[in-house]
Design brief:
hydrolase; alpha/beta; eight-stranded parallel sheet; repeat; elongated; PPR_rpt; signal; 19 strands; TIM Barrel; Serine Threonine Protein Phosphatase 5, Tetratricopeptide repeat; about 5% strand; secreted
């Protein structure tokens, strides 16, 4: 009986102790501390699962709006959230906290008082930020403006970090906030445990000092200042997590740009208690796919959590993360939240450094004016709210487990049970040992110490699937894919108790994709099918990527048709694969012929049904596999809210209204434009419907991919159909979709529709402006492109590297050096010069403008170069008449290990042809064969041109015949031109006719070549036939070059009056080329009057043209008009016009030397002239003897 009583009493004592200690564990009073890499509250682990709400003080400053604050905190507490981050600043401007330095708005301060009091009432901690990096709510700029108004010589916002007066203003603000007496709680802020931490600045950046030293010094000074005033609260810097010079290997993780911060060095500063990281892949990589953004997010978070634990030894909070629903659907946002929360949970359950996450941002009902696309209203149930609540429960459970372990130890110590002797070891549970070894394994793999990681792995007494996945990922990261796959196989043999999950299977499939190990991948496919893992979205996507990445797009389509469940990821993966594979147009050969059974109709999956066309008799030639994936049902009975042009089936949209008009407006406009709405037309339009029947499908990225397919097809009718669907889904205002629509219209030649769309966009980002600049350049309106760039600079959207690349391309096309130099200055001021795309486009601009010295200096000053850099400078030298430099640069490129591209080889072949150095051209040809680039259309046409210009028409013809089946219009044109230049007009014309018969559509250059052939052979009638053919049959308007060919043809036929008439009737501004052609013909025919008119026209365009003046003088001389000839020559002398000397070149020992009459620029000119004088002096007697014999009537050359 006594033992039973003892057990009962002991049990009661334990329960009482648990209750007491449990109350302590979950009390939210007290200051949050740090203990190692964890937060601690009242001696127990604490996790910051919370939100951002920058608006708390602003809204609460109006007493009538305070119920919104109370409701928001109540909902946050109900969903288990523990921390709120908000602003303790509003400097200058509208409703400021700080009117001017030291002068405060009591209403705003009382608003902050109320927010803190409500947080305390609901058990939520607060993080308060002292200042803003950005202009909103004052920011650095306002402090600098205040200092400038008091006479300080400050100009840049970054002077905030260095100017003593600005720093004094800031320090005084910190002091004012810390010493604030809360009018509601009656506690000074510095003594209030409701406040968890202070933040020095929201996202500090100093781009003017990319070394990070300025920020480092500022944080050091301000951290010491805060700690001198307040030792109770924690302090963090507010950093976003960008790596700096202290960890150069990690800088590759940073998004593009200069930030002036250093995640490692800045957070090592004494006084900084914990570290923060922000994550916005959708803003940092706006042009990247959803998959790429998620891959970045995983790497970004893993790196920072590991560095916080192993390098900084401090807790880390993921202080800002989110996903804008303006750019994606709820499924994509949930994926981001799950990823972030998953990283935190995996670290927290092992006692790691990840101590919480704060999503951006919490809103309450009736706060639409604060909605930025990221806002989440907890009272409005959604899948994201469920994810948030689930994370709260998981972190609470972890906290309970750790608290229980701590309580047991406390109870044992308090009761004297099981005292642990000093130095004695305590055996840890197996699962704790396994978790610790897994953490060690992950750390070693993450730091690249794969050999050490393998040793730990091999010695592990117990391995779980996490252990196997970590080590396999390590080998994949080290590009040892064979070992990764070998480990996957060993997992089933060595540890049969370990069951492969979707994660490790996805990792193994990635290894198969990298090694193109299709057989192993197919085995994994069978394994996934057998283990029912094929329904997992990551496994399905990995398999799809494996097949499409290895050119097996049909297998991808077949797999897609077999998937029992589909969501946005799998749909988007297959569509992206088809687009990237160029499978835009394939008729009705659908990869989805059968419908799988037991399909879910949830928001995350999609059933498949066979699609039909209303009238499909002509659909085979106008449909697309990609777009078939969008349309899996009938639409005859359910026309969309758009218009169809009668008799065509092409869907149009109301582009003269807003992008997201009211539904009635769309219907009304559609009805006005086309009264007969419907899709039952001879040319049925297939567009997507099946995906759109379910919530979240398709997403904005899927729309963007579909629009890219339309642009690739140049099928604007499909694009209009998708535009209609975009409007019906409410995605018209999403920037990514609007930008894709604009690009689709402009690439399909619908510039007017594109401009109307651009003008109607409610907001524009850098992609919008850059797309417009590129579109103008594409249609030859480069001046409008430059004007658009200037408009963009006057807007609040800063240009990025792609913008400058497009702007430089426009300047290059216009040969406007001054504009290009001004853009160069902009690049330097914005710090974008290190971007390769910018440097390459600047080089191209300088080359096209004839400034090869500037291009060369830019090239030699580049920190790194890619193949485009090399090709650009080689092409610049080649086109600029510097062949030696071009070949030298090419040799330099080869020594650097860079593999030449077809463009670089084509540039060298062009140089060889222009300089008529056949042997050099043959060497380039041999290199093309060695590199496997001889079948490239660019190289092929360049080879034909080179051999033709070097006089070897036989070799040119041989190159053409070797690739005749695969010949394109460029190669055909090159061959036709080669025949024409070699007087083989018949062969040129025959080849042109043959190309027409086999279905080639000639372009403008082709017609120039065939007209040249007609001119050389004197076939006037045939020339006019082709000239009319290009207009009547091919709907081409003749360009200056075509008129030039016809003028030359008429001149050669002696029909000078018709030639002059054609010149006068040309619909272009007349240049000196056509008039010079007529002038030379007049010389041959001794047509003095017409020649005089032609010469005058030439001199109007080019007043110092030596060709015109010399030819005119020769006309006068040939007709014995000596006086007129003398006047022309006297005019040449008075104007300083000198006849351009002829020149020739020679190739000796791989060096091309050019010579002009009287020239002395050659480095060996003295030696050359010395030898020449010896030859002349030695030839004088021979010349005298030759003349004597000629006089005697017997001419012999001795």
């Amino acid at each position: 009986m006594k033992p039973l009583c003892l057990v009962t009493i002991l049990s009661i004592l334990i329960q009482q102790s648990y209750l007491k200690l449990g109350a302590d564990a979950f009390s939210r009073d007290g200051f949050v501390r740090t203990k190692g890499v964890q937060f601690s509250l009242n001696g127990y682990p604490y996790y910051a699962n919370g939100f951002n709400a920058y608006w708390l003080m602003y809204v609460a400053s109006d007493p009538s709006q305070r119920p919104k604050i109370s409701a928001a905190f109540q909902e946050a507490s109900r969903h288990g959230l523990t921390v709120a981050r908000t602003w303790a600043f509003s400097d200058g401007g509208y409703r400021p906290l700080q009117y001017s330095p030291g002068s405060y708005n009591e209403d705003m301060f009382q608003g902050l008082d109320f927010a803190i009091a409500e947080a305390r009432r609901h058990g939520i901690k607060i993080i308060l930020s002292f200042a803003n990096n950005y202009v909103s709510f004052g920011g650095k700029k306002q402090y600098v403006d205040w200092a400038r108004s008091r006479g300080r010589p400050v100009s840049s916002e970054d002077d905030f970090f260095t100017d003593f007066l600005v720093k004094d203003f800031y320090k005084n603000h910190i002091k004012a906030v810390l010493n604030r007496f809360n009018t509601l709680t009656k506690v000074h802020y510095r003594d209030d445990p409701t406040i968890m931490a202070w933040e020095l600045m929201n996202e500090p950046r100093c781009p003017s000092d990319p070394t990070g030293r300025t920020i480092q010094a500022w944080i050091t000074e301000m951290a010491a200042h805060v700690k001198s005033l307040d030792r109770n609260h924690l302090l963090e810097a507010g950093l976003e997590g960008f790596y700096g010079q202290s960890s150069p290997q990690s800088k590759t993780l940073n998004p593009p740009g200069q930030f002036g911060t250093d995640f490692i060095a800045n957070n090592r500063i004494p006084g900084i208690d914990f570290v923060t990281v922000h994550s916005y892949p959708d803003e940092w990589f706006v042009d990247s796919s959803e998959q790429s953004q998620m891959e970045f997010l995983n790497k970004w978070l893993d790196a920072h959590i590991q560095d916080a634990q192993n390098v900084l030894h401090k807790p880390i909070i993921l202080a800002e993360f989110g996903k804008s629903t303006k750019k994606a659907g709820s499924a994509q946002r949930d994926a981001v939240f799950n990823t972030v929360y998953g990283k935190i949970y995996e670290s927290a359950k092992r006692g790691g450094a990840a101590a919480g996450g704060l999503f951006w941002q919490l809103l309450g009902n009736g706060m639409d004016n604060f909605q930025d696309g990221y806002g989440i209203i907890l009272s409005q149930s959604s899948s994201t709210v469920n994810v948030i609540a689930q994370q709260s429960r998981k972190l609470t459970l972890i906290r309970r487990i750790f608290a229980r372990m701590i309580n047991v130890e406390k109870w044992k110590r308090a009761r004297g049970y099981g005292p642990v002797r000093k130095g004695a070891s305590v055996e840890k549970p197996a699962y704790l040992v396994s978790n610790q070894l897994n953490d060690q394994l992950k750390t070693l793999v993450g730091s690249g110490k794969l050999r050490d990681a393998r040793q730990v792995f091999d010695k592990m007494p117990h391995r779980d699937v996490y252990s196997w996945t970590t080590i396999i990922q390590g080998y994949i990261a080290a590009t040892n894919y064979d070992e990764a796959l070998s480990l996957f196989s060993a997992m089933h043999v060595d540890d049969p108790r370990v069951s492969a999950d979707s994660h490790v299977l996805s990792v193994a499939l990635k290894a198969c994709g990298q090694t193109s190990n299709i057989s192993f991948g197919e085995s994994l496919h069978a394994f996934a099918h057998k283990t029912h893992l094929l329904s997992d979205v990551y496994v399905a996507s990995s398999l799809l990527n494996l097949y499409k990445g290895n050119g097996m797009i049909d297998e991808s389509c077949r797999l897609f048709s077999e998937l029992p469940y589909r969501n946005t990821v799998t749909w988007t993966t297959i569509i992206t694969g088809l687009v990237h594979a160029g499978r835009h147009k394939e008729g009705l050969r659908a990869p989805l012929s059968q419908s799988p059974k037991h399909l879910s109709h949830s928001s995350s999956s999609l059933p498949l049904s066979r699609g039909y066309l209303c009238n499909n008799n002509k659909a085979e030639s106008s449909s697309s596999t990609i777009l078939l994936l969008f349309d899996q049902s009938r639409f005859c009975s359910n026309p969309p809210t758009a218009s169809s042009q009668s008799g065509t089936g092409f869907i149009t949209v109301a582009l003269d209204v807003e992008i997201v008009p009211p539904e009635n407006s769309v219907l009304h406009t559609a009805a006005e434009r086309t009264p007969n709405m419907g899709l039952c037309n001879n040319h049925a339009l297939m567009y997507f419907s099946e995906m759109s029947r379910f919530e979240g499908l398709p997403d904005t990225f899927t729309f963007a991919i579909a629009l890219k397919a339309c642009a690739g097809l140049r099928q604007v009718q499909y694009g209009r159909g998708i535009h209609t669907h975009v409007i019906s889904k409410g995605f018209g205002a999403v920037l990514d979709v609007a930008n894709s629509l604009f690009t689709m219209y402009t690439e399909c030649g619908e510039m007017e529709d594109g401009l109307r769309l651009f003008e109607s966009m409610r907001e524009r980002d850098v992609v919008s402006w850059t797309s417009l600049i590129t579109a103008y350049s594409r249609i030859g309106q480069e001046e409008n492109a430059v004007k658009t760039f200037l408009e963009m600079r006057n807007s609040d959207v800063p240009p990025n590297e792609q913008t400058f690349a497009s702007a430089f391309a426009a300047c290059a096309s216009l040969s406007r050096l001054v504009w290009g130099e001004q853009l160069h200055g902009n690049v330097i001021s914005l710090g974008l010069g290190d971007y390769l795309s910018v440097s390459n486009s600047m080089m191209n601009m300088y080359s096209k403008c004839g400034e090869l010295d500037s291009a060369s200096a830019l090239f030699r000053g580049m920190r790194c170069r890619d193949i485009i850099s090399w090709s650009t400078i080689i092409g610049g030298y080649s086109q600029g008449g510097l062949p030696e430099e071009g070949f030298e640069c090419f040799s330099w490129m080869r020594r650097s290990g860079t593999k030449p591209t077809d463009f670089a080889l084509a540039s060298l072949l062009s140089v060889s042809g222009n300089m008529a150095v056949l042997e050099q051209g043959r060497q380039v040809h041999a290199l093309a064969l060695y590199l496997g680039l001889e079948q490239s259309p660019t190289v092929r046409s360049a080879l034909i041109n080179m051999y033709s210009k070097c006089g070897s028409i036989v070799e040119a013809s041989k190159v053409f015949k070797e690739t005749e089946r695969g010949a394109d219009i460029v190669a055909l044109t090159a061959m036709i031109n080669g025949y024409a230049e070699h007087g083989k007009s018949k062969e040129a014309i025959d080849l042109f006719e043959k190309s027409l018969k086999v279905g080639f559509r000639p372009d403008a250059v082709s017609f120039i070549s065939v007209l040249t052939a007609c001119s050389h052979s004197g076939q006037l009638g045939l020339g006019f036939h082709y000239f009319n053919l290009m207009q009547d049959k091919y709907n081409m308007s003749p360009a200056k070059e075509h008129y030039g060919c016809m003028v030359d043809l008429l001149c050669r036929a002696g029909r000078l009056s018709e030639a002059e008439k054609m010149i006068d009737e040309m619909p272009f501004e007349k240049d000196d080329v056509v008039w010079t052609t007529l002038l030379r013909a007049c010389t041959a025919k001794r047509d003095v009057e017409r020649g005089r008119r032609a010469a005058e026209r030439v001199l109007e365009v080019e007043p110092t043209s030596s060709t015109a003046l010399v030819t005119l003088a020769n006309i006068y001389s040939s007709t014995e008009k000596w006086k007129e000839a003398a006047i022309v020559r006297k005019s040449m002398k008075s104007k300083g016009v000198v006849k351009e000397p002829g020149w020739s070149s020679i190739l000796i020992k791989d060096r091309v030397s050019a010579f002009a009459s009287g020239g002395r620029s050659h480095p060996q000119s003295e030696d050359i002239y010395s030898v020449l004088e010896s030859l002349v002096s030695g030839a004088e007697p021979l010349r005298y003897g030759c003349e004597m014999k000629r006089d005697s009537g017997s001419i012999q050359i001795l």
